[in-house]
Write a structure and sequence with these properties.
The complex is a heterodimer of chains A (about 525) and B (about 200).
Chain A: H1 24-27, H2 32-60, H3 71-90, H4 93-106, H5 115-134, H6 153-156, H7 161-188, H8 201-233, H9 246-280, H10 287-300, H11 316-344, H12 353-376, H13 378-384, H14 388-418, H15 424-450, H16 465-495
Helix pairs in contact in A: 2-3, 2-4, 2-5, 2-16, 3-5, 4-7, 4-8, 4-14, 5-7, 7-8, 8-9, 8-10, 9-11, 9-12, 9-14, 10-11, 11-12, 12-14, 12-15, 14-15, 15-16
Chain B: H1 7-38, H2 40-47, H3 52-77, H4 81-111, H5 119-124, H6 126-161, H7 171-196
The chains are: A mainly alpha (about 525), B mainly alpha (about 200).
Chain lengths: ~525, ~200
């Protein structure tokens, strides 16, 4: 393929001149591609803060006792780390960045259904981020409840809770509006000929995710408002002193926040389902099974929230029910893993960077998923509840799962987004170091949890010292890998070799438009006649 | 770029938004049912404090306002701009009447010390604290939706007056109608839960 093939008649979306200039041409743009990049840069900046906080926590834990910070500082840091990482990074994460950029292109549309609403979502996101982060600087010190805002402490603590809770509430709106936009886009704007079962899998997972965003987020919204009302007006819903029930808060919180885990992981699975067939040069195995398992995860994921509360007090019947449902929700995930492996089987694999990210995703996701079953079983849960085992489990899923898929997606669609190739040597080196660092960082925490080290403490008994040192060293290795990856991508976005339309030989629609695409993506809306992963 | 208009998409979007609104209130309905179950006696007695007459009047007001906004959609379909604006104005007046009633109702409760955080309410016991906490939270959130609806309808009225909404382009008017019916529907549940079940 020659470079000429990629020359567009019109200016691409990066060069396009609107009637606004400079930054205004970006932050007031209703182009889904520019909005996707706005999210990318916002998320990256916040990730820098969140990761630094994580590094500081790990450094504090390198030795028992006080190393670099006081207990209260540590409490503030793990709270902010959680709020930033969960509400500002992994929940918007793949849908807001790659969903915005690619969903319209992959289904053959010029933009999302409501472009102005889309821009509004980003503005709400920025507002929510500012309000949440302002909690650190205003009032009586950073919040110290953890990202879960558990009652009654969240309305008893004198720290500056209100901005943190309100920030999370505002971010919920951004998430709901993005979900609403995607559902309508998928229903109304699929190109002629693209029936539901000719739609690529990444849009499918965005569809499942969007329904969760739409139907679960309002519950946490109202719950957070109740916390605000509790602090400001003493309505008493969660205050035992006024007849309220703190466990009720936990129920309401997890009714959203467990499905939120599937908001994080479903689009990640979608991205992996795009990467693997492209680099295995083979049709995805069991397309319909992946679609069905996506919808099954979205649906069953609503009914498992109680497994966060096995130690909080529930009837025996509820315990059994939530435990069984938790085991059930693992099945569709396992189906997907089986499908990915079967896709690779007898494929003609070209080992490029996105493929490395995809296979390492499967590896860490398996560890994360299987450790989830250990926590979903009632007896082992009681032993492991609120220990480092839980922290390791969800970092394997949320950081290992969503994070690795995000990196894979970043490298996979990088040529499309910037019209340039990255340096594969550095990208692979960064991946290798990051992967080793990741496993070194989080694997010891499983062991620490099993021998009884609780989470969320700045101090620990000397018996836990050894694994903590390994874990902290792992955090340094991982961050080195991350720096290599980010520097490589930044350099390549500017100086990389120009990319062709379809550098990987992908078969979905985004590879049929220019790299980078023009403002309207397609000169004429394409008519779809074949299935998305047709390598025959 | 040619202008893209899709009324079906716009209505679909509104329906999805209504789902999220229902779930937003759903959270409070769950809390209500839990506390009603735990404090049925106290809820029974506290409910008798509410003025069923004002509640009934407000229910009738909202039902009529839902009717007038539905009629305004038919009016615009029949190209009758003047009637559309009259019907929307009646809707606004009814919404305002609802809020005035609410003001007096809330005012009376606050005067009697029946509001969250008051010491005389705390003396009555846990059930009453929770009942009135829920009463103010749920009717307050509902009243907030009435105000948002009034702003939305006012904005649509400007659009109708400027012919930006007309017989072949009335999706926004229809959406504001949908939203108004949602606000009405939520009240239809709040009314029996607070005023009638005693």
């Amino acid at each position: 393929m020659s470079v000429e093939e990629n020359v567009n008649q019109e200016p691409n979306y990066l060069e396009y001149k609107s009637n606004r200039k400079g930054l205004g041409a970006w932050i007031f743009s209703t182009d889904h591609k520019r909005i996707g990049l706005l999210y990318l840069y916002s998320i990256m900046s916040l990730f820098f803060i969140g990761a630094t906080l994580g590094l500081l926590m790990k450094f504090e834990l390198i030795a028992p006792g006080k190393t670099i910070m006081e207990a209260q500082t540590y409490n503030g840091i793990f709270t902010l780390h959680g709020i930033i990482m969960i509400f500002l990074i992994v929940i918007p994460g793949l849908p807001a960045v790659f969903g915005n950029f690619l969903l319209p292109i992959m289904i053959g549309a010029k933009d999302v259904a409501f472009p102005r609403l889309n821009l509004l979502s980003w503005w709400i996101y920025v507002l929510g981020a500012l309000v949440a982060v302002s909690s650190q600087f205003l009032g009586d010190g950073p919040p110290d409840t953890g990202w879960t805002f558990y009652a009654p402490y969240s309305f008893k603590t004198t720290t500056n809770m209100l901005p943190a809770v309100l920030g999370a509430f505002i971010l919920g709106f951004s998430s709901i509006l993005t979900g609403l936009n995607f559902i309508v886009t998928i229903h109304r704007l699929r190109a002629p000929g693209m029936g539901w079962f000719k739609m690529p899998l990444f849009p499918w997972t965005l569809y499942g995710t969007a329904w969760i965003q739409l139907l679960a987020t309002p519950i946490v919204g109202i719950t957070l408002l109740m916390i605000v009302a509790e602090r400001m007006l003493q309505i008493g819903f969660f205050d035992p002193a006024l007849g309220g029930d703190p466990v009720l808060y936990q129920h309401l919180f997890w009714i959203y926040s467990h499905p939120a885990v599937y908001i994080m992981i479903l689009p990640a699975m979608g991205a992996i389902s795009e990467i693997i067939p492209t680099f295995a040069k083979k049709t995805i195995f069991g397309y319909k099974a992946i679609v069905a398992s996506t919808l099954a995860i979205a649906f069953v994921g609503y009914f498992v929230w109680g497994h966060h509360m096995f130690a909080s007090g529930m009837s025996t019947f509820s315990l059994y029910t939530f435990s069984i449902l938790t085991f059930l929700v693992a099945i569709p995930s396992a189906i997907k893993v089986f499908n990915w492996l079967a896709t690779m089987h007898k494929g003609s694999i070209s080992p490029e960077t996105p493929f490395y990210w995809a296979v390492s995703f499967i590896f860490v996701f398996l560890i994360g998923g299987l450790s989830g079953l250990v926590l979903g079983a009632l007896a082992t849960n009681v032993h492991l509840h609120d220990t480092n085992f839980v922290v390791a489990h969800f970092h394997f899923i949320v950081f290992g799962g969503t994070g690795f898929a995000f990196m894979g997606a970043m490298h996979y669609w990088f040529p499309k987004i910037y019209g340039r190739m990255y340096d594969t040597g550095w990208a692979n080196t960064g991946w290798m170091i990051f992967f080793i660092g990741f496993v070194t960082l989080y694997l010891p925490m499983f062991y620490l949890g099993m021998i009884g080290m609780p989470r969320r403490y700045y101090d620990y008994l000397p018996v836990f010292h050894g694994p903590n040192i390994i874990s902290t060293i792992g955090s340094w290795v991982m961050i080195s890998g991350l720096i290599i990856i980010v520097v490589n991508l930044f350099r390549s976005a500017k100086y990389g070799k120009p990319a062709v339309k379809n550098p990987w030989g992908g078969r979905t629609l985004e590879w049929e438009v220019g790299s980078p695409p023009t403002l309207e993506n397609f000169d004429t809306i394409p008519t779809v006649t074949r299935r998305p992963y047709d390598y025959s | 770029m040619e202008l893209h208009r899709d009324d079906t998409a716009s209505k679909l979007g509104m329906w999805l938004f209504i789902f999220t609104e229902l779930l937003l209130f759903g959270g409070l309905f769950i809390v209500y049912s839990v506390f009603r179950y735990k404090n049925s006696q106290a809820f029974h007695l506290a409910a008798e404090e509410l003025d069923t007459f004002i509640g009934t009047v407000n229910t009738v007001i909202l039902l009529i306002s839902s009717m007038t906004i539905a009629m305004s959609v038919t009016a615009i379909q029949k190209k009758n701009k003047k009637l559309t604006l009259i019907l929307l104005s009646i809707t606004q007046v009814l919404a305002l009447a609802f809020m005035v009633n609410k003001y007096f109702e809330w005012g009376a409760k606050i005067e009697h010390g029946l509001f969250p955080g008051s010491s005389s309410l705390a003396d009555l016991g846990h059930g009453d604290v929770l009942f009135f906490g829920l009463y103010f939270a749920m009717t307050g959130l509902h009243a907030f939706h009435i105000i948002v609806g009034m702003i939305f309808i006012g904005w649509i009225m400007v659009y109708v007056a400027k012919d930006k909404q007309s017989h072949d382009n009335y999706a926004l008017l229809e959406n504001s109608g949908l939203y108004w019916h949602l606000v009405d529907l939520i009240w239809i549940f709040l009314f029996p839960l607070f005023y009638l079940i005693i």
